[in-house]
Structures are given as C-alpha cells and as structure tokens.
UniProtKB/TrEMBL annotation:
Gene3D superfamilies (UniProt xref): 1.20.58.70
Gene Ontology terms for molecular function: SNAP receptor activity; SNARE binding
GO biological process annotation, one example: vesicle docking
Domain T-SNARE coiled-coil homology: 224-286
Subcellular location: Golgi apparatus, trans-Golgi network membrane
The protein's name: Syntaxin-43 isoform B
Membrane topology: Single-pass type IV membrane protein
Similarity annotation: Belongs to the syntaxin family.
Length: 319
C-alpha cells in the first residue's frame, strides 16, 4: 500500500492555526486564541481535506473552545513586582556597602563611593520606573470588575514601594549622619604642631612667622582631601534623599486612597452588622407571629374535634 509523509505539512498548518486569533464577544475586551479539538483527518480516509490558514469567524462547533489572554495591565503589574524584588536586593547590597565605606581603611575609598553611587542610582531608577508603571495601571481601561482588581493591585504595589522608599531613606539618612560625624572628626584633627627652630624667623621682635613641617603639610592635605570627598558624598546622599522624598510624596496619594477604601470597608461592615441585627429582630417578630398562628390553629382544631365528637354522640342518641 502506498503512503505519503504529511508530517511537514501538518506542522505547517498546525502552526498557522495556532497563530489565528478570533475576537471575543461584545462583553469581553481581551484577545483570545481559538483552538479546535476536532480531528484533523476526515471520516473518509480515502482523501485528505486541506486545512484553511485564513482567519475565520468564531467556530460554533461543540468541540471548539477559546483561551483568553490576560489584560495588558498584568504585564505592568509583573514588571512592578520584578522591580520591587530587584530593589530589595540592591538595598541589601547598599547596606553592606555603607558599612564597608564607613570602616577605616588605608585606601582613599573612591571605589566604595562609586559602588554606593551606582547602587543608589539603580535603586532610584527602579523606584521611578515602578512609579511610572503604577500610574499606567490607573489609566488602563476595562470593565468594572477588572477595574476593581486593578485598583487593588495598584494599592498593594503602592504600599510596597512606599515601604521600600522609607527604608532606603532611613538608611541614607543614617549613612549621611555617620559621614557628617566623620567629617567633623577630621576637621578637628590634631596636627601635633612641632615647631622647628629653623622655621622660626624673628621680624622686629614683634611678629613671627611659623612654618609647617613636611609631615604636617601632608596631614593637612590629606585632611582637606578627605573633607572634600566627604562633602561630595554628603551632597550625593542628600540628593538621593530628596529624590526619595519626592517618590514618597507621589506614592502617598495612593496610600491615602487605600486608607480611604479601608475606612469605607469598615463603614460597610458596620452597616451590614446593623442590618443583620435589624433582620434578627424582624425574624424574631415573624417567629412570634408564627407561634400565635400555630396556637390559633391548634385551638381551632380542638374546637373542630369537640364539635365532631358532639355530633357523633347526637347521631348515636338518635339511632
């Protein structure tokens, strides 16, 4: 029996069918991919029907089903979550870099300072990007249910970002305080001035010129260089603190909104509790009315039984 290998053609048509997208109904807004589970081979095995690779209307077959794609704002939410995780890792590295930079060392500390600046800029950039993505979440369109879910996700990310910003700001403020303390210590360093007789020159017995030794000049220059480096570090830290303050200010709006929603939820819970208590009172009234009704029914049944018994005795007496 002669056979033909249709594997390559089958794969080509299968890939083409996978790429075909059919629109949802009028109530949905996200795209879907329609997949058909019917057999690729017809019932008549003597011939092969070609598969169409053109787009078509949604299939009405009972074997067809659709797979919905997530809304576009889900990508923004995942990007924000990734940035938050990366920012946490960088903040941990920044804490270690701060501790290393504050330790006394024989080097000039420029490499540590560059590492700190790089980490600070990267963290600030991640927070800025997350803030932009967060604003895009509020501007996304969708149904009311989708909007509620999106707002909840937005408030959750806003709280995480604000906590990260506050943590970073505290660490930067502590580092700035230590830098200022070190700068004050070096400004008041004792140069141990040992006057050299050859450097002392008398002029009219009224004024004297005091010269510094080479060691003292070296210490003085080193102190000046250290002070300049610390000043640059302090300026950089102050700048990052100001940027974090602005980020926290922008995020506080969403957090305040979240607090308003929580207050509204508390109010709704209290309203529901009041309604339940009122409903319980009404239910008790209904139960009391039912008890009265049952009592009346029992009384009527008793009277009816008595009347039947009286009639039966009368009938027997007549007989």
């Amino acid at each position: 029996m002669a056979t033909r290998n249709r594997t390559l053609e089958f794969r080509k048509h299968r890939d083409a069918v996978k790429s075909v997208r059919a629109p949802l109904s009028s109530s949905a807004s996200s795209p879907v991919i329609e997949m058909v589970t019917t057999s690729l081979l017809p019932s008549n095995r003597s011939s092969y029907a070609p598969l169409s690779t053109q787009e078509h209307a949604p299939s009405t077959s009972r074997d067809a089903f659709t797979v919905g794609l997530p809304p576009s704002w889900v990508d923004d939410s995942e990007e924000i979550a990734t940035n938050i995780q990366r920012a946490r890792v960088r903040i941990s590295e920044l804490t270690k870099a701060h501790a290393k930079a504050l330790m006394p060392s024989f080097g000039d500390g420029k490499e540590d300072q560059r590492h700190i600046e790089t980490l600070t800029q990267e963290i600030t950039s991640l927070l800025r990007k997350s803030e932009v993505r967060l604003k895009r979440l509020s501007a996304a369109a969708g149904s009311s249910e989708d909007s509620n879910v999106r707002k909840n996700v937005q408030r959750s990310h806003a709280t995480d970002l604000q906590n990260l910003s506050m943590d970073l700001r505290r660490k930067q403020s502590a580092y700035l305080k230590h830098l200022q303390q070190q700068q004050e210590g070096y400004d008041g360093v004792d140069l141990e001035m040992n006057f050299n007789g050859s450097k002392f020159v008398s002029h009219n017995d009224e004024f004297s010129d005091v010269g510094f030794s080479e060691e003292q000049m070296t210490k003085l220059k080193r102190s000046e260089q250290f002070s300049e480096e610390r000043e640059r570090e302090i300026e950089q830290v102050v700048k990052s603190v100001h940027e974090l303050a602005q980020i926290m200010k922008d995020l506080s709006v969403l957090v305040i909104d979240q607090g308003t929603i929580v207050d509204r939820i508390d109010y709704n819970i209290q309203s529901v509790s009041t309604s339940v208590e009122e409903g319980l009172k009404q239910l008790q009234k209904v139960l009391f009315s039912l008890m009265l009704l049952l009592t009346c029914i029992e009384t009527l049944l008793s009277l009816y039984d008595c009347k039947l018994e009286h009639l039966s005795w009368n009938c027997l007496a007549v007989v």
